[in-house]
Amino acid sequence: xxxxFAMGGYGAYIWPCYGLTLIGMVALAxxxxxxxxxxxxxxxxxxxxxxxxxx
Amino acid sequence: MxxxxxxxxxxxxxxxxxxxxxxxxxxxxxVGLPYALLFSPPDYQQGExxxxxxxxxxxxxxxxxxxxxxxxxxxxxxxxxxPLADLAAVALAPVGALFTGLTLVTGAVWGKPTWGTWWVWxxxxxxxLVLFFLYLGYMALREAIEDPDKAxxxxxxxxxxxxxxxxxxxxxVDWWNTLHQPASLLRRDGPAMDPSMLTPLLxxxxxxSLYFVTVILWRIKAAVAAKRVDGxxxxxxxxAQRARTAA
Lengths: 55, 247
What we know:
- The complex is a heterodimer.
- Chain A is an all-alpha fold.
- Chain A is 89% helix and 0% strand.
- The longest helix of chain A has 44 residues, at 11-54.
- The N and C termini of chain A lie far apart (67 Å).
- In chain B, helix 1 (7-39) runs antiparallel to helix 7.
- Chain B: One of its GO terms (molecular function) is heme binding.
């Protein structure tokens, strides 16, 4: 197991690359998903409000 | 194409595709990551550092393909004024910038043990740095100009001028004497790579591409919804004002 993490002595180069890529991609995906959900719900809420006030 | 130019239709199609795309992305990484980190062999020259290539190459691929998409979307918006093309361009820019940044960083970290240096001003590395600044410039320009139509136009023109950088990136390793190695995947005589490394690289390319499409669709959806929210808010303000004048 420790051999796997050592990566033949190059662990200090390989793991930061994978870690940074993971953090960057997860952060961007999370931000994008949350943004579309928040705005889609907000649009639905405003649409419902508009219908109510017209009745 | 015309059919999908309608934002509402686009969103309903995206909603149908997105659960599958997100699941396929997760599955592709679940297969690709153990392959890249464990099951593929170390390179006879690079040793274990070759594993960085499995994220560096897909990042670089998406960085350049993303910019091609940005250029095409900008051209479509400038010529035909399809509103969805402008939203697609805005959605692409930060995703492309992330992958360009990751390409530069993973390349530098690979370069240190392999070349003995983090950075050289070699044609491939420099043209990738220019790509990063093109993405940042595109986003900064859209933020800097208040009128959204003028901002869109200026940024679209910038992105079209920047397209010249793409062939420079692609052929930099052939035109100049670079430290960066030439292409091993897209060659006339076929990929110059052993299947034990080609397979994990292709799986990772697929995983990154699925991720890219998923995130772009989320971002375009968000932009369409933002426009709707804006329109509905304006309509409400307008109605409220009319009610006040009538009273």
